[in-house]
Amino acid sequence: MTTVSLTVNGKQISGEVADRTLLSTFLRENQGLTGTHIGCDTSQCGACLVHLDGRAVKSCSMLAVQASGSAVTTIEGISQNGQLHIMQKAFKENHGLQCGFCTPGMIMSAIDMINRLGTDLDEKTIRHELEGNICRCTGYHNIVKAIKAAADEMAEVLQAAE
Amino acid sequence: MAAEGIGARVLRKEDKRFITGNGRYTDDMTMPRMGYAAFVRSTHAHARIKSINTDEAMKMPGVDAVLNGHQLVADGIGNIICGWMIHSKDGSPMNMGAYRALESETVRFVGQAIAVVVADTLQQARDAAEAVIVDYEELPTVVDSLDALKDGAPQLHPEAAGNLIYDWEIGEEAATNEAFANAAHITQMDLDNNRLVPNPMEPRSALAHFDPSEEHYTLYTTSQNPHVARLVLSAFYNVAPENKLRVVAPDVGGGFGSKIFIYPEEIACLWATKRVGRPVKWTSDRTEAFLTDAHGRDHHTTAELALDANNKITGFRVKTVANLGAYMSLFSSSVPTYLYATLLSGQYNIPNIYANVKAVYTNTAPVDAYRGAGRPEATYVVERMMETAAKEVGMAPAEFRRLNFVREFPHQTPVIMAYDAGDYEASLDQAMNAIDYNGFAQRRAQSEAAGKLRGIGMSCYIEACGIAPSQAVGSLGAGVGLWESAEVRVNAVGTIEVLTGSHSHGQGHETTFAQLVSDRLGLPTDSISIVHGDTDKVQMGMGTYGSRSGAVGMSAISKALDKVEAKAKKIAAHLMEASEGDITIENGELKVAGTDKKLSFTEVSLAAYTAHNLPEGMEPGLKEGAFYDPTNFTFPAGCYICEVEVDPDTGVVSIENFVAADDFGTIINPMIVEGQVHGGLVQGIGQAMLEHTQYDEDGQLLTASYMDYAMPRADNVPSFKLETTVTECPGNPLGMKGCGEAGAIGSPPAVINAITDALGIRDMTMPASPNRVWQLIQDNGMKQAAE
Questions:
Q1: Is A157 near chain B, with CB under 8 Å?
Q2: Does residue B50 contact residue B135 with C-beta atoms inside 8 Å?
Q3: B:735-764 residues touching chain A, CB 8 A cutoff
Q4: What's the pLDDT score for residue B2?
Q5: Which fold would CATH assign to domain B140-193+294-396?
Q6: In a shared domain, residues A55 and A29
Q7: For B601-623, what is each residue's pLDDT tens digit?
Q8: What's the order of all strands across the beta sheet hosting B164-171?
Q9: How far apart are CA B720 and CA B657, in angstroms?
Q10: CA quadruple B473, B478, B479, B481: dihedral positive or negative?
């Protein structure tokens, strides 16, 4: 067993975990943050995607101990003061989800996409960047639409702030 | 139209919990003292089990129990059933081999469950499962259905000589043969429908709990039909009487058919929880899902189409061999028979049809319903044949279809189905306009100038949904009735709970079902809650599959609403001293027609529950239930057109345009219907271009992870252009037909017709992977050079 200390959704936590505990397992079982989902065993589907120190990682592909000392943000941590994140709102408004299982990973991936590439995203870029997230329900059509809509809205927000 | 009523693009009520990470899926649940299950699975596709040694595993830390099939049988747990009896053409019942939740004598596919370990942690359970030593005597293996029928093929079950489950037929053979004898042209093709793995993103999961003081079981599980699960677990697997077994299907992350069936793991967890005296949870990993979720499709077909001198179809003859895997899953027998061959008439007037289907055992995972279930296979056969026949007789594919369309309704096909309504030409015209069919030649010329090959292909599909009239399916061998139930509970303050036997696992019932109530009563959808997925709350239901929740599930709600409205009107008439016939319901108010007298729905509801002033003899309360049994199947239909560009240097196919024009009858929420079509299209395009389930000759599954099985990703597919036409279904009160499967049914032949058009070839096998397309281009080039 090893002690891990990290920040999860802004809250400092620490806990004892077996060395081989995955970050995804730690979040789901030790922290009860079940919005991070496990959809495969090979880091392909992206349902477990979280942000580690501001960068997207597949939490099924790293150990909890590797995340010690870092700041993790999960799907539960992106709403602010009860206000949905623009990306969450865009998924709802554009019917970018059906069963909801891939959705947390999709949203976290989409936010990361905008963090890395900015808000000027075309359809081709969005589709290419979603390569690491699999959805079986939506056919991606409305996910792409949602991300584009969110990117446009975030661009407006940024412009207004300038 | 009310603001949130039928036809409105209401945003989904269920979304908030999913976008915030607050969905509650089975694996999200834990219970005090819960143990974790891991299964010992066969590493061989066919072997006799000589011994199962659990000594080492039992000594490992945290392990409670290692249980096997001998104990399961001794405890009286029944064999897994198939719920649809098919008779062969000689009248004999299908030949079904015994299927046990845990096998202790002969394993017949890789991944088959042999034993279950329960331990304190998941890792302990998995480590102990690894330590169980199974001694096998390997047996010869067969994985392809045509090989399984050959003389001398390895035999799977003593009950099924020659691995033949049934040899079934439909239609008039002699009359069809005569049509061929008199044909002016015959088109003949060999058509394979590739084996697919459904792959809902949430893996299957089961959490079982036994309360010894009440002798009561609870099962949380990933089910599309929890009531059917309870019925089967109780009546056939002898887990517990129905009143002592609660099955809950909470949020379920997609199903596509694969979560209809009751699998060995659910049975084993229920059985194990009592034996070990603690709650037991099992969640599939993705490789287990590939190995053990029921697969889909896997047909080998030879089809022949007979035309007269005017290019009218006179006969259709189809021979299909269907691979059902190593065991018969719950509805497996119905898929290649009554869900397949009954759709072989397509959208066309075909006077003579004869189909013969042989279902076969092989050393592969069981095969059962997957999105479309039989209807994609039928559509693929029909629409590949139509496209090829048109080209062979020198007609434009659209014109050949027009010539043969069914135009008068009702239309009785030679294969059971009676089409009730449709306008196939309207969908065809709409799709051709939307894709600018006339501009294709110019686009093709542009592609050619850029060194690319361009092709266009269409598919005019029909399917049968609204599954199904109970008496009709009963006469065809179904073990259950396929009605649906609903209960509308009006609370004293006028808010409403609708209890439904349908189950939503992505379809958005919490929104669309509320829209129906809102449309009828004029109440906001916020005041209407949909309750589903729990056998303790909803009395009985048949679940969600076969695009039935709208046409059947909502029809049941509509019937219950009729009763609620009738009682509410009686109360309102009494309170307002008016005639019951003068009461109308509008915008949440009950009004006396022609006056300004009115009561709010809340006032009437409250009066029903205070019961201070009700009509003489009326019972208090406002709660009504209904069962709806369909009178016929429903027949969604449409036209899909796909336009592709192929890079001849690499064999990579890109879909440049895709139009879907569907007729679903009445649409409750266009936004949700469009989403269903998008998802179906990508599953169909996945089948046509990417997905293939590959076993090696020893029965090892080579495509058992997302590294090896090509799931469609966002950059493999385009955005779509969707159109709709509407002919209302006359068979149900809402005029609905169903939209859940159409995309997956109609799209594969459109894609393959487009690719073969681009390549200038007739035949190709799905999936159209770059390697296969490139090879076809080389072969075709060599053929042309030789000519």
A1: no
A2: yes
A3: 743
A4: 64
A5: Aldehyde Oxidoreductase; domain 4 (3.30.365)
A6: yes
A7: 999 999 999 999 999 999 999 99
A8: B164-171, B353-360, B313-323, B299-307, B185-193
A9: 7
A10: negative
pLDDT in tens, A122-151: 999 999 999 999 999 999 999 999 999 999
pTM flag (> 0.90) = yes
Q: Compute the Cα dihedral for B328, B38, B155, B325 and give only its sign.
A: positive
A 92-111 near B (Cβ less than 8 A): 92-93, 95, 97-104, 107
Helix residue ranges, H only, B540-691: 555-575, 601-610, 670-689
Domains held by chain A: number = 2
**Both A70 and A6 in a single domain?**
yes
Q: What is the CATH number of domain B31-139+203-253+259-292?
A: 3.90.1170.50
Structural domain boundaries, residue A95 = 86-161
Same domain, yes or no: A65 and A93: no
Of A34, A42, A95, the CB nearest to B706: A42
Please compute Rg for chain A using Cα positions: 16
Q: Which residues of B touch A150 (CB under 8 A)?
A: none
Write the pLDDT tens digit of every residue in B180-211.
Answer: 999 999 999 999 999 999 999 999 999 999 99
Last residue of a domain, one of A77, A99, A134: A77
Q: Say yes or no: do domains B140-193+294-396 and B483-628 share a fold.
A: yes
Closest-CA residue in chain A for B200? A136
Q: How far is A98 from chain B (nearest CA, A)?
A: 4
Q: What is the CATH number of domain B420-462+634-787?
A: 3.30.365.10
Last residue of a domain, one of A38, A54, A77: A77
The mean pLDDT value of chain B amounts to 97
- Asked whether residue B786 carries a pLDDT value surpassing 90, the answer given is no
Q: How confident is the model at residue B1 (pLDDT cuts 50, 70, 90)?
A: very low
Sign, CA torsion A115/A121/A125/A126: positive
* Four-way CATH pick for B483-628: 3.10.530.10, 3.20.20.100, 1.10.10.10, 3.30.365.10: 3.30.365.10
Please give the C-alpha separations between residue A60 and each of A75, A107, B235, B531, in angstroms, as whole numbers. 15, 17, 40, 33
Query: CB B23 to CB A97 under 8 A?
Result: no
Model confidence pLDDT, tens digit, residues B86-131: 999 999 999 999 999 999 999 999 999 999 999 999 999 999 999 9
- Where are chain B's structural domains? 31-139+203-253+259-292, 140-193+294-396, 420-462+634-787, 483-628
Q: Please tell me the predicted confidence (pLDDT) of residue A161.
A: 87
**DSSP label at residue B717:** S
CA B94 to chain centre: 23
Helix H or strand E encompassing B461: strand B453-462
Do residue A13 and residue A62 come from a single domain? yes
In chain B, residues 291-320 whose CB comes closer than 8 Å to chain A: none
Q: What is the pLDDT along chain A (162 residues), one digit of tens a residue?
A: 999 999 999 999 999 999 999 999 999 999 999 999 999 999 999 999 999 999 999 999 999 999 999 999 999 999 998 899 999 999 999 999 999 999 999 999 999 999 999 999 999 999 999 999 999 999 999 999 999 999 999 999 999 988
What would the mean pLDDT of B278-292 be, rounded to a whole number?
A: 98
Interface touch A38/B27, C-beta < 8 Å: yes
Q: Looking at the predicted structure, is the pLDDT value of residue B284 above 90?
A: yes
Q: Chain B contacts of A110, Cβ < 8 Å? A: none
Nearest to A116 by CA among A44, A51, A30, A49: A51
Residues 404-423 (B) with a CB less than 8 A from some CB of A: none
Query: Domain with A43 in it: what CATH number?
Result: 3.10.20.30
The pair of structure tokens assigned to B34 is: 């819960």
